[in-house]
Amino acid sequence: MRRSTTLLALSAAFALATLTVTPATAHDAVGSEVNLEQFVPTIEDSRELTSEPLVEGSVLSPEGEALGGTVVTLEAWPSGRELRDLKVGEQIEVATIAKTATALDGSFELRAEDLDLLKRYEDDGEIDLSVVVHGDRGNETFNLSATTDFVNGEVAIEDDNMTEPLTMQIEEPASVESLLARDRELQTKICGWRKHSDLRNRVTTIAQVYSTTSKVTTKVEYSKGSSSSLGAAVNIGTSAVSFTSSGSVSTSYDSSTGYNDRRGVHATSYRKYAQYTKFREYCALHPLAGGSPTGAPVPTSNYQVRPVDLTDTFSVALATSSTPNAPYCSLTETFYEASTGTAVTFSNGVALKTAIGVDLSAKSGYSNGIKIRFDRTSGSSFKVCGTAGKPDAKGTYFGLLVAKA
Fold first, then answer.
1. DSSP collapsed to 3 states, the chain
2. Are 161 and 115 found together in one domain?
3. Are 51 and 169 found together in one domain?
4. Which residues contact 25 (CB under 8 A, 6 or more apart)?
5. Whether residues 217 and 170 fall in one domain
6. Peptide bond before residue 366 is cis, with ω within 30 degrees of 0
7. Furthest C-alpha separation in the chain
8. What number is the average pLDDT over the span 233-254?
9. What confidence score (pLDDT) does residue 318 get?
10. Do 155 and 237 lie in a common domain?
11. 354 lies in which domain range?
């Protein structure tokens, strides 16, 4: 799968520049009629910014019909390192960094200009983001991670789920009028996310590697400080145990424990434990005149399940009969190392079905910190084969790896 990168130019000078508003056309007529000035008034409407979009996509009904005039926002979440230390009931700060309304054909583009706000959520070169489509009976959310380069004033989407514009569905979209109506009463809702519970030690697949020859030793490396892309989930309906997958976020590994080398013929699943946390949205009533919230926060039916940590390291021997067909082979004389390119995404890589009704995805590597290596131990050469492409072809997605004589 090809990795997609979209850049968002951000600079201090840009924040002071005169904004250029593109005239409305028939294509974006519905979106241009939606006034978002009073909705999250502290940030600019993406339609009035001239930078490249950070995220683009469309909103459809369950029947596939375009939903024009639907409100879409982009939120920044604290990193897993922050979330892992929360106590149950503790509130977290999630910031809205972009807002827009969909055009007549349901399309949207989200842009942001607040560099300082983005920096507050950056952790080791990455930011966790959520695209939120607002609905009258609950929101639809898609999670992703963005890499950051604040030296050059850029933020780049690097997520295998973003190989094409995002398509999201919602049954009952909320108009900006209905969103603002909630704040026109004598009291307004103040909502936020709180830690609900921990979902500990979820078995997570890092890699599956195979060898049908006695001529090699297999090494799988996952260095301290490396990270995997693990699936996130949101609730559907009002059930706290009925979730659907919703994109993925980057999760780091801060231990130095490695995997044991495997010699000769084997079929091995390399694994870790992922630590997940369930979050629930709470709302309190706050008088417009100011003062402290009246009454205790009331829980809503909105939940998110997010990865916060990766721990431990272990491997499981698979039946050698499970070795996949790998017809795309390259001959090597000494060693082969996969340290660049796109690794396999295991669609059911995180075992969460017993807890939330669905397993989530996992993808790890390849990089200098996450790599697979075969070393020849006898003979003059061996073959390294991929299930989807030749491993020696640069930029090729080769799938699972199998060492052969």
1. CCCCEEEEECCHHHHHCCCCCCCCCCCCHHHHHCCCCCCCCCCCEHHHCCCCCCEEEEEECCCCCECCCCEEEEEEECCHHHHCCCCCCCEECCEEEEEEECCCCCEEEECCCCHHHHHHHCECCEEEEEEEECEECECEEEEEEEEEECCCCEEEEECHHHCCCEEEECCCECCHHHHHHCCCCCEEEEEEEEEEEEEEEEEEEEEEEEECCCCEEEEEEECCCCEEEEEEEEECCCCCCCEEEEEEEEEEECCCCCCCCEECCEEEEEEEEEEEEEEEEEEEEEECCCCCCEEEEEEEEEEEEEEEEEEEEEEEECCHHHCCCCCEEEEECCEEEECCCCCCEEEEEECCHHHHCCCEEEECCCCCCEEEEEEECCCCCEEEEECCCCCCCCCCCCCCEEEEC
2. yes
3. yes
4. none
5. no
6. yes
7. 81
8. 82
9. 97
10. no
11. 197-278+306-404
204 and 138 part of one domain? no
Tens-place pLDDT, residues 179-237 = 777 655 434 556 789 999 999 999 999 999 999 999 999 999 999 989 999 999 998 65
Residue 182, token pair as written in the block: 């909630």
The confidence score (pLDDT) of residue 1 equals 30
Q: Give tens-digit pLDDT for 20-33.
A: 223 333 334 455 57
Q: Which residue has the tokens 């795309």?
A: 328
Query: Do 233 and 328 reside in the same domain of the chain?
Result: yes
pLDDT (tens digit per residue) in 256-292: 788 999 999 999 999 999 999 999 988 776 554 444 5
How far apart (Å, rounded) are the C-alpha atoms in residues 265 and 317?
Answer: 11
The answer to pTM > 0.90 is: no
> Tens digit of pLDDT for each residue in 53-101?
889 999 999 999 999 999 999 999 999 989 999 999 999 999 999 999 9
381 within domain boundaries: yes
User: What is the rounded distance in angstroms from the CA atom of residue 133 to the CA atom of residue 139?
Assistant: 6
**What CA–CA distance (Å, rounded) separates 386 from 187?**
61
